[in-house]
Amino acid sequence: MVISTEPEAGDWAALERETGLQQLAPASSPYWAYREDYDAGTHTPAQYWARVLGTAVSAEQLRVLEDLDAVQWSHLNADTMAVLETLSGEGAQLALLSNMPAGMSARYLREAAWPARFAHTFFSGPLGMIKPDRRIFAHVLDKLGAAPADVVFIDDNVRNIEAARALGLHTVHFNPGTDLRQELARFREGSNRRDG
Length: 196
Fold this sequence. Notes:
Blueprint: H1 9-19, H2 30-33, H3 35-39, H4 45-53, H5 59-72, H6 78-89, E1 95-98, H7 102-111, E2 120-123, H8 124-127, H9 134-144, E3 152-155, H10 158-166, E4 170-173, H11 180-195
């Protein structure tokens, strides 16, 4: 929830109507209980939703559920997008690492404009591993050809922040009150002092 905002109440309500379940948003709900397996690519969409609902789903219901799920995570954070636009214009090397099922990531890459802000995109589903697994960070660093100390990692999940920090990455723990411009300026100033 750095690029996107939290799903809105209407998004959860639509998903609850379709599933016949209530209170899907809380962390204790079946939506979240199996999400890490789904994000890690060990569950297909049909397997994930069958576990959420407790019964097999038809092809048509699966299509609707996948559409609703994609929509609820597509509300962009305008402040973050403005920072990305600035950084992109300055020539920053931007990379995205997201826990996301393969189908959803493919949909966004195909249909959304925001992935174009990034020179590199890494999604957990196709990779078969998720944050905070240190292997996914190692994979990204290897593909970027970057040392941990040269990377600023921004995430809303403290477990992911702790894992990245343990590997030597600079980190920003993002929350709704975070001023990304200010945080990134602080890292830039520190880098300039070291280089100077």
